[in-house]
Amino acid sequence: MELRVQLKICEGCGCLWYRPETQQTVYCQQCKTRLREFPMPHTRKRRGRPSREILPQIWAVAEAAGGLL
Ligand SMILES: [Zn+2]
Question: Coil, strand or helix: which one is 3?
């Protein structure tokens, strides 16, 4: 049986690796095992403190809009 592979650049560490055509992952074997030990970024986001950087921007826009009216 012929196994086709593609040369891929790992999105985790940037190294070059060969991916079998049957796989869809974008990470090399090393990163895959490493990522399995950590929660995915989008599940981690919920817990951190709420970001305050957005609020001053909103107020600045509201102020600017209020000044124009
Ligand atoms: Zn990697």
Answer: coil
